[in-house]
Write a structure and sequence with these properties.
It contains five helices and eleven strands, in the order βββββαααβαβββαββ. It is an alpha+beta fold. The strands form three sheets. Strands 5, 6, 7, 8, 9, 10 and 11 form a seven-stranded antiparallel β-sheet that branches. β7 and β8 form a beta hairpin. The two termini are about 15 Å apart.
Length: about 250
């Protein structure tokens, strides 16, 4: 493991001088909080089953690199959070252990592979779970399973929850979740099921501001257990699940 990384609290990411936004060169170093879900109590006192991620990650959110992506960047930030997990838990000792790709690098990768037109680079177009799977495979050679849940209610409660339990038990990596009516990307790092329903442990990338301690992020609700029944019952949802069982070293 990289001895320069401090997972207990936060890590500084130097994005270098090659990042650009609206023609301005960026060279910003930001401190990112790590493992922001830890210490949050389970939502149920007597759960039937709880499953969570295994390993370390960094919390990426709106503006965390000085790039103001409010209103369109939540998918990119969730991908960066997932990428930070991959770099630390699947490739901790080789050249794959690098800063997660920047927003411009993600856009350029999608253009280069032919998924997006050239106009996508330096745009403010959002990405979803399909693009997330392409990006993670491109940068980390990790395939992703995409699960489509057609609607809320019983299908969301049973199909999504069961898939998440299996994923965290086998792979242990963060999951990206998004939908149509509920089109806000969110990271999912745990699931807890009781007799009367389930909760998802959500890491929300929509926070915009300076670095916060994980306790403050939890207090403000940016990292929280969300009851499945509180999600939009009229929205379909997609899950992007990195298939890391044969790669992860922290199982």
């Amino acid at each position: 493991m990289d001895t320069n990384v401090v997972f207990a609290g936060s890590e500084e990411i130097d994005w270098g001088g090659g990042r650009a936004e609206d023609g301005k060169t960026m060279n910003k170093t930001k401190t990112l909080s790590s493992n922001v879900h830890t210490g949050l109590p389970n939502p149920l006192t007597d759960p039937v089953k709880c499953s969570q991620i295994k390993g370390d990650y960094l919390y990426f959110h709106y503006g965390c690199d000085g790039h103001d992506d409010r209103g369109w960047g939540c998918g990119y930030r969730t991908v960066q959070t997932m990428a930070s997990w991959l770099s630390r838990n699947c490739f901790p000792l080789n050249d794959k252990h690098q800063a997660p790709p920047s927003l411009p690098e993600i856009q350029q990768a999608l253009v280069t592979m032919g998924d997006k037109p050239g106009s996508f680079s330096c745009s403010r177009e959002w990405i979803g779970t399909c693009e997330a799977s392409l990006v993670l495979d491109c940068f980390y050679d990790v395939p992703c399973k995409l699960v489509h849940v057609r609607g809320g209610g019983a299908e969301l409660e049973h199909v999504a929850v069961e898939e998440l339990h299996r994923h965290f038990e086998k792979h242990g990596s963060p999951v990206m979740m998004g939908g149509d009516r509920d089109n806000s990307s969110k990271g999912v790092v745990g699931v807890c099921t009781g007799d009367n329903g389930s909760y998802l442990l959500v890491v929300d990338p929509h926070y915009y501001g300076g670095p916060l301690e994980k306790t403050e992020l939890q207090k403000r609700g940016w990292v929280a257990w969300k009851r499945v029944s509180s999600l939009d019952q009229s929205s379909f949802y997609n899950l992007c699940m990195p298939q890391t069982a044969n790669k992860a070293v922290n199982k």
